[in-house]
Amino acid sequence: MSTVIRPEKVFDGETFLPSGTEVLIDGGQIREVGPGLVADDIVELPNCTLTPGLIDCHVHLTIDGINPLAQLTEPFSLQFYTAADTLRRTLDLGITTVRDAAGADAGIKRAIELGLVEGPDMRIAVNILSQTGGHSDGVTPSGAVHHLLPEHPGRPGPVVDGVEEMRKRVRELQRAGADVVKICTSGGVSSVTDNPHHAQFSMDELEACVREAKSGQTPVMAHAQGKQGIINAIRAGVRSIEHGVYADDECFQLMIEHNVWLVPTLLAPVALNRMIDAGASVADEVARKSREAGIAHAAMIKQAVKAGVKIAMGTDAGLFKHGINLEELQLMQRAGMSPEAVLHASTQSAAQLLGFDDRGAIRPGLRADLAVFRGDLTSFEGLSSRVAGVYKSGRKVR
């Protein structure tokens, strides 16, 4: 059955379309866009804005807020049921596609494809590659081992050293169903034993990762916070820089020259600092790094916007509880991005980064992945409470 959606406004992935624009969907696809359309069913949406389904390029669906004690004491299989819940909550926000930046395995992705679980479509990294002593090495100062994402039959382990180990682990990730390989080229905030400013992995290791990934047509995303780690990642050939906390103009120029996206995850330090203020139990070193990163991150994104770097929306949801993802749009706007630029980063640009050519825009022939928000989208304040409808492949799921 064909349906015409008549909102107050339509954002098509690049710009707001003229008043009176309607969208006809049928068979899971967008068939027509324009005024005066006719269909079997009419959906009137006064005072609402229609957008392509949003895309979050950085989530961790098997985690719902970092809690080391809980992760040490909960049953192994609970993570899969956690993912079923976080997927549903993410879809309810109007996010119809995600890139899981480590945690979800091929079985979770397959459950979505089979309709066993309701949630966004997925690209998956499976796990995060780290050098010994790096961001994803779970050996703590006490000698205890606590990998945030421990190895299991569907998830190869995170720690690799040397070119040959790197080559083999990338192949193992591809065998496990990874759509993207994620590698840490700098230290991080939530890890106790490393420094965000320090570069990680040698250039030989990074180039081996990218070369092996590309041989299997798998792009590489880089957790990269410090300047040298960012530069190394770009020169090695990664597709996106995640976080980019301490990036500067030299980094931005390289991103532009090498056609590399920035996925800023502005919400990550904001939410982590909130959790610390509320009394979350974290190491003093993590709290210190988080405060510093929050200040640097806010300044960095303003420079990146001015430089003209390609930006795709990503949140790092999972570090904090899922469900507040849309605050990222508000933070991007505060950084100087126009409403159109924020929405473009959250739809068409994100789809391009993830390699999708069938979504991310409202255009005839594309999938009818759509989100409806009450009011106009000149501001993103309180956006989570303004979600009025979600369509996935033309089917209303909220």
UniProtKB/TrEMBL annotation:
Q: Which domain of life is it from?
A: Bacteria
Gene3D superfamilies in the cross-refs: Metal-dependent hydrolases, Urease, subunit C, domain 1
Q: Read off the InterPro entries from this record.
A: Amidohydro-rel, Metal-dep_hydrolase_composite, Metal_Hydrolase, Metallo-dep_Hydrolase, OTAase-like
| Domain Amidohydrolase-related intervals | 49-397
Its taxonomic placement starts with: Bacteria, Bacillati, Actinomycetota, Actinomycetes, Micrococcales
- Alphabetical list of PANTHER family matching this protein: ALPHA-D-RIBOSE 1-METHYLPHOSPHONATE 5-TRIPHOSPHATE DIPHOSPHATASE (PTHR43135:SF3)
Q: Which GO terms describe its molecular function?
A: hydrolase activity, acting on carbon-nitrogen (but not peptide) bonds
Q: Which UniProt keywords apply?
A: Hydrolase
SUPFAM superfamilies in the record, alphabetically? Composite domain of metallo-dependent hydrolases (SSF51338), Metallo-dependent hydrolases (SSF51556)
Organism in which the protein naturally occurs: Glutamicibacter arilaitensis
Has keyword Hydrolase?
yes
The entry's protein name is Amidohydrolase family protein
